[in-house]
Amino acid sequence: MNNAPPLLEASALTVRFGGLVAVDAVDAVIREGELVGIIGPNGAGKTTFFNAISGVQTPSSGTLRVRGRRLGGRSAHRFAQLGVARSFQTPRVFKEFSVRENVRFGLKFAGKRPRKWIFWGDERGVPWALRDADSILALIGLSAQAELPAAAITPAQQRLLEIGMALATRPKLLLLDEVAAGLTEAEIEDMARLIRRMRDELDLAVVWIEHAVGTLLKHVERVIVLHQGRKIADATPAEVVRDAGVIEAYLGDEMIDESSSEFDREEATA
Ligand SMILES: Nc1ncnc2c1ncn2[C@@H]1O[C@H](COP(=O)(O)OP(=O)(O)OP(=O)(O)O)[C@@H](O)[C@H]1O
Ligand SMILES: [Mg+2]
After folding, report:
1. Where in the chain is the domain with CATH 3.40.50.300?
2. C-alpha to C-alpha distance for 66 and 182, rounded to whole angstroms
3. Does the domain made of 8-83+171-269 have the CATH classification 3.40.50.300?
4. Which of 30, 162, 165, 71 is nearest to 110 (CA)?
C-alpha cells in the first residue's frame, strides 16, 4: 500500500537544559493523516518536544527523521521545507500587519521551497482551500477581519490567524501548541472541529497539545502522554484514560479539577 516513511520519527529524543532533562529519550512516530494528542502536566516537556521536532531547539541527543530524512540542529527552515508547520503557545503574529498580510507571509515562506518541489508536487497538489490567502482566511473563519491589523483582533482570533499562517506553508504535519488555551467551552469545541476538518480535508497530520483533555480525548485517535520529560503512554484515548500511571501522573488531577468546577457551578446555581 503506502511505503512512504513516517512523517516524523523520533528515537530516544532528548533535550537537556543544564541539569534538567526536559525531554527524556522519547520515541515517537507520526504517520500521514494522523490526529494525535499530546497531554501531560505543566513542565512535562510538551512544548520542548515540539521545539525539537520543528527545528526550533537542537536536541541534546537522539535522532529525528522527517519523511525519512535525518535532521538535527536548529534548522526551522529545513523542517518547514519538509512540511512541518507549527503554532506557538504564545501566538506569534505580525501585529502591525493586516490579518491577510500575515497569511501572505506564510504563503511567501512556502514559495521558498526548492523549485522542483513546487514544480512537481506542490502547486498541483495543493488543496483548494489553501490556494491563496483569502481561501485560507475563509477556512479559519477570519474573512471579515482580513483588513484589520493583527493587533486589533481578539487573542482567540490571533490563535486562528497563527494556524492560518502555518497552513499557508502547505504543511504535511501541523503542530498545535495549546491553541484552545483561554477559550470558552464552546470555542474549544469549535477549535476541535476546525482541527478535525483540517486533518480530514487538507491531507495533513495534526499533533495537538492541549490541557483541555476532555475535548482533546474526544477528538484525537491516539494520545501521547509526557510526564517529567518521559513518554509514559502512547495509545488510544480509551486506553489512556484507564492507564493507572497516566491517572496518577496527570488525569487524576485534571478529572478532579473538571468535576470540582462542575460541582462549583451546581453549587452556584442551587
Ligand atoms: N529554554 C529553556 N531553558 C531552560 N529550561 C527550560 C527552557 N524551556 C523549557 N524549560 C524547562 O523544561 C521543562 C519543560 O518545559 P515545557 O515548556 O516543555 O513544558 P510543557 O509540558 O510545555 O508545559 P506547559 O503545559 O506548562 O506548557 C520545564 O521544567 C521548563 O521550565
Ligand atoms: Mg507548553
Report:
1. 8-83+171-269
2. 32
3. yes
4. 165
C-alpha span between 80 and 108 (Å, rounded) = 12
Please write the tens of the pLDDT for every residue from 221-258.
999 999 999 999 999 999 999 999 999 988 876 665 55
Give the binding-site residues of ligand 1, using a 6 Å CB cut-off. Answer: 17, 20, 22, 40, 42-48, 89
Ligand 1 centroid from CA 48, angstroms: 6
Residue bearing cell 518521559: 230
pTM: 0.89
How far apart (Å, rounded) are the C-alpha atoms in residues 260 and 270? Answer: 15
Cβ proximity of 195 and 220 under 8 Å: no
Alpha-carbon distance of 199 to 193, in angstroms, equals 10
Element (H, E) at 223: strand 222-227
d(C-alpha 107, C-alpha 80), whole Å: 12
* 3-class SS of residue 141: coil
What's the pLDDT tens digit per position in 71-102?
877 788 889 889 999 998 887 889 999 999 99
CA 104 to each of CA 28, 149, 235: distance values in angstroms, whole numbers, following the listed order:
32, 13, 37
Residue having the nearest C-alpha atom to atom 6 of ligand 1 = 17
- Would you state the cell numbers that stand for residue 230, as one nine-digit string? 518521559
What's 5's DSSP letter? P
| Residue 150 near residue 161, CB atoms below 8 Å | yes
Q: Please name which of 35, 66, 54, 84 lies closest in space to residue 201, comparing C-alpha atoms.
A: 35
Measured over the CA atoms of residue 78, residue 83, residue 88 and residue 94, the dihedral's sign is positive
